[in-house]
Design brief:
Largest sheet: none
Radius of gyration: 21 Å
Strand content: under 5%
Shape: extended
Number of strands: 0
Number of helices: 4
Length: 126
């Protein structure tokens, strides 16, 4: 696996590193996830702890929705290219990722809308 300098230099030449086995791909994904886990958890926990009311959730949720929307478009574009190139199994996985991202988009949008308090509904006397 390349070090940061090698990846940087390859990037300058318009190239990127590709792994030769699924095991290597799993390893680098796990390594990247594990190495950033504590920092990400801490960063997001501190940020969430600073929220003071439902409106405070809105900016982050709206930004997250925008990032997910971009991710969805990226996945759809990759899926289309994979199909064009005849990589059916890859296209299917990208399609599943796009569908899941679309579902997440819906949930995040609904969560953002839920930050706006609704009118108080009186409880009916029985």
């Amino acid at each position: 696996m390349p070090n940061a300098l090698t990846r940087f230099l390859m990037g300058l030449m318009g190239k990127s590193w590709a792994y030769d086995s699924a095991e290597d791909v799993r390893e680098v994904i796990a390594k990247n996830s594990f190495e950033t886990l504590a920092d990400r958890a801490r960063t997001h926990s501190v940020g969430a702890a600073s929220l003071t009311d439902s409106f405070a959730f809105q900016p982050g949720l709206i930004d997250l929705h925008d990032e997910l929307h971009d991710t969805w478009h990226y996945l759809v574009a990759l899926k289309g290219r994979a199909r064009e190139m005849g990589y059916g199994a890859l296209a299917e996985q990208l399609d599943a990722a796009a569908e899941t991202t679309r579902d997440t988009l819906t949930h995040v949008a609904t969560a953002a809308e839920s930050t706006v308090p609704g009118p108080e509904v009186p409880v009916a006397n029985r």
